[in-house]
Amino acid sequence: MIQPGQSLPDMKFSLRENGEGKEVSTADLFAGKKVVLFAVPGPFTPTCSEAHVPGYVALADKLKEKGADSIICTAVSDAFVMEAWSKDQNASELLMLADGDASFAKALGMDMDTGTFGGIRSKRYSMLVVDGKVEKVNLEEPGKFEVSDAQTMLEQLS
Question: Which of 21, 72, 116, 117 has the largest count of CB atoms under 10 Å?
Fold first, then answer.
């Protein structure tokens, strides 16, 4: 699993903005920036939709006031679903990235196999990433939502 002090791997992501698809790299997203990154097991799932994303939406302004250049949510899904979920969650302040084949989750050591429930997914976590390097990692225990929330990240921003 990726640890504080390590750099994020060089990866590409799919996303949709304003109805158009595009590809971005970790360098595009993280170089020279302070980024709050969080991952969820699945869009439109209960904890993700009822607590995790809404918390980051509610605290987006405060996170940015404390120095976050961007707030990124990633999930093992496709760009169309992530775009629809962003609209459903009124999450225009967040960048919703599709990790379609779980390559990012796997590269971080943050993947999990949920079997027939959904297959390979990302673990639930949050990270503070500065200029491509991980400063903080908040990994949830399976089935928990206690440390990767927006309030915890707000308290960790310096």
Answer: 72
